[in-house]
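Project channel, design review

CF: Before we commit to the Candidatus Moanibacter tarae constructs, I'd like one complete example in the thread so the newer folks can see what an input/output pair looks like. Taking ATP-dependent RNA helicase RhlE.
RD: sounds good, go ahead.
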Amino acid sequence: MDGLDLNAMSEISIEELSDTSGFGELGLSDAIVRGVSLCGYKEPTQIQKQAIPIIMKGRDLLGASHTGSGKTAAFALPILSLLHRSGPLRCLVLEPTRELAQQVEKAFLKYGRTLQLKVTLLHGGVGYGKQTQDLQRGVDIVVATPGRLLDHLSQKALTLQDIRFLVLDEGDRMMDMGFIPDLRRIIGHCPQNRQSMLFSATLGPEMEGVANWVVSDPVRISIGGGKALASSVQHSIYPVDDRQKFDLLLALLEQIDYRSVIIFCRTKLGADMIARWLSNTKYRAVILHSDRSQKERDQALEGFKSGAVEILVATDIVARGIDIMDVSHVINYDVPQNPEDYVHRIGRTGRMDREGDAFSLFTASDQDFLKNIERFIGQTIKREKIENFPYNWSPILEERTVQRKRRNRGYDSSPTMNIGRRKRR
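CF: and here is what came back for ATP-dependent RNA helicase RhlE:
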């Protein structure tokens, strides 16, 4: 794609990047630096330090970074800096789910609050009327899900002929959800002389294939030395008999000192069941999955984000579809069948380099899934157990665990667990 040469770089690493002490040193416009300051941000994250100068110099970008690394600001801030004036539709950001699209739109509005740019959100689950009206009034930036964008294109409600910036976010999730044919159609409407950015938590061979027709001669960046998991997250598994899973879940909730917990289930029916069982105890939980109405999903998210409810029970729509800051714990009630789903679930905690903990309840039927996960992330996950829990059988631990004193939330008079928690910042 057209743009300035970045010293013919094709790949960079964190070690090769000079240190920057703030957003003002990344080449952003003064208006955006002021906007960032108003948001309370002081230091850019690693992906922001790497990606922003590349985008500001006009290069295409292929970025791999773990979930919660600050990726949205990494592309939104330089795009806002380069647009700065209102005009025809020049920026298109594609997201896999409506929840993620909503949050990216809010990020553009927040970062660009000092600019006169118009941002429009296009996603399903709502009527076409307001979206069409917004497009008719004129927009600078569109954040959309593929299906709804194609609907508007077919109705000739917008044109992509003036697109200057194209962002394909959560590329691996797009591929998993079967959006590749839709993305090809959308990109066919965009000019060739655009600047394109493709972000994905992981970059396997299939995603490299997608990159071949999305970006042109991109600069490649990878956060965390290619590791899929953030180093700020401690994760472990708890072997348990299938008949005792819910009892073990209650024991975990009694023992961990949590602020907020996301409990992941494999199915929508399972999520409904766990939330109902929790409500029959002393815990309050909200539910989030694709069968819930948009109003129910919005209410669940608002209650969880505000702290009114501490437990969110969900399917993988949350693992990749939304951005919730400051989640202290993730519990996999069901081990995910897809290794990439494990990465995205765990990535709901430990975001923006905050510390977090993630636990998975593991049964004998999960053995193959666990092997695939450990192979994918390149490490063996620590096996742990809850002391004083009345197991039907003795869990087999492959590593010797270290006893750590835990805050007692009522499960036993003097319980001790191997949770792996640290003092929070």
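RD: helpful, thanks. Residues 124 and 148 are 6 Å apart (CA to CA).
CF: The two ends are 42 Å apart (CA to CA).
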